[in-house]
Amino acid sequence: MTAQPVTAQPVQAIHVQGLEKSYKKLRALRGVDFDVARGSIFALLGSNGAGKTTVVKILSTLLKPDAGTATVDGFDVAAQPGCVRASISLTGQFAAVDEILTGRENLVLMARLRHLKDAGQIVSDLLARFQLTDAAGRRVSTYSGGMRRRLDIAMSLIGNAPVIFLDEPTTGLDPQSRVEVWNSVRQLAGQGSTVLLTTQNLDEAEQLADRIAILHQGRIIANGTLAELKQLFPPAKVEYVEKQPTLEDIFLAITGHDRTDGAASADGADN
Predict the structure, then answer these.
(1) Is residue 263 pLDDT above 80, yes or no?
(2) Is residue 4 a part of any domain in this protein?
(3) Could you tell me the pTM of the whole model?
(4) Domain membership of residue 139 as a residue range
(5) Is position 7 within any domain?
(6) pLDDT 10s digits, 211-228
(7) Domain count, the chain
(8) 31: in domain
(9) 50 near 217, Cβ under 8 Å?
(10) pLDDT, greater one: 129 or 255
(11) Residue 6, domain member (yes or no)
(12) Which is nearest to 266 in space by CA: 164, 159, 131?
């Protein structure tokens, strides 16, 4: 008999309540609560050691909590781990791609491991979706950082998981590659996927997330939309100042890219 979700198609794709986790004397999570709506991008924002990766590991069934409950796509992570794993894809902090293989070969390998029919068409669709068609026949060792990360995300999507975990997906990337990945994440949510994104990059959370939860020392200390979080501060004073471009603005302008450039002409360039 096929296992059924706890509730049929709940409004929340992810529900977390009272999660606790300790590593010996270190309390990594101290009662974490949050919900993620279906089809949204939810950013879990925090510094190194805040507990972000621990949350992702629990939600993806790689780690058991000491206390609390969590459901993903309606399945309990403790009682129905197999169903949870069938409902998710997970991309870690570093691209897990085979550099000896071509981009297409990496995707075909993953499709065959999942025993999917029409692997060729699935792979071609993903290559087009992530702007990698022209580079599909090249070894991944020749790819830029942004291209490798996009390929890594594409590999995790084989099987059409409704819930996607991205654990600091732009770690170590240059500004141009980071923008490429941001546009890929926006496409995922635009096509109906639910994305839980961990990051310590404030700009990344601001650019991508529908809701942002700030995780600090194992606790959620704020949770809301960007507009709601801004209301936590006193009203801004109106002052007339000359706005200076940031170094990132300068870099993107000089290299011919901007924050909305999804085509990324650097697909043909190496690191």
Answers:
(1) no
(2) no
(3) 0.78
(4) 12-264
(5) no
(6) 999 999 899 999 999 888
(7) 1
(8) yes
(9) yes
(10) 129
(11) no
(12) 131
